[in-house]
Structures are given as structure tokens and as C-alpha cells.
Amino acid sequence: MPDTHLRRPAVQAVTGLSRSSIYEMMDKGEFPRPVRIGKRAVAWPQSAVEAWLAERPVSTGAK
């Protein structure tokens, strides 16, 4: 089954990250890189974004 791809606004909604945070983290190797889906369009494989989310530490909110 083919992987679904998410455009940047969807990635921002799912992760809660801003556009600049996504690209800054990509530059540091801390966020998955998108794949080209057209001449001027990129998208992130949903599985890569979900895997990244699963690796993130979970905040308990306790101090």
C-alpha cells in the first residue's frame, strides 16, 4: 500500500511545529526530509512524520 504524503501545512498541524522550526530541525538532521512530488512541490511521507512523533519524549506536564 502506498504511503500517504503530507504537505507542509498538514505537517505543521500534526507536529505543532512552525515552518521555520521544521526547516531548522531538518538542517540539524532532527526532522525527516521531504520528498519531491512535483517540479516545485514537496511533501513528507506520513510514515516518516509518525515515526518522528513516536520517537519524541512525552511530556507529563509535571514539574
SS element count, helices: 3
The secondary structure category is: alpha+beta
Reported for the largest beta sheet, the result is:
3 strands, antiparallel
The amount of beta strand, in percent, is: 5-15%
Distance between the termini: 43 Å
List the secondary-structure elements in sequence, H or E.
EHHEEH
Shape: globular
Number of strands: 3
Radius of gyration: 13 Å
Helix share, percent: 40-55%
Oligomer: single chain
Low-confidence stretches: none
**Total separate domains:** 1
Mean pLDDT: 92
| Widest beta sheet: strand line-up | 1-3-2
What does this protein structure show overall?
The protein is of the alpha+beta class and 63 residues long. Helix content is 43%, strand content 13%. The protein is built from three helices and three strands, in the order βααββα. It has helices spanning 8-15, 19-27, 46-55, and strands at 5-6, 35-36, 42-45. Strands 1-3-2 form a three-stranded antiparallel β-sheet. The radius of gyration is 13 Å and the shape is globular. The N and C termini lie far apart (43 Å).
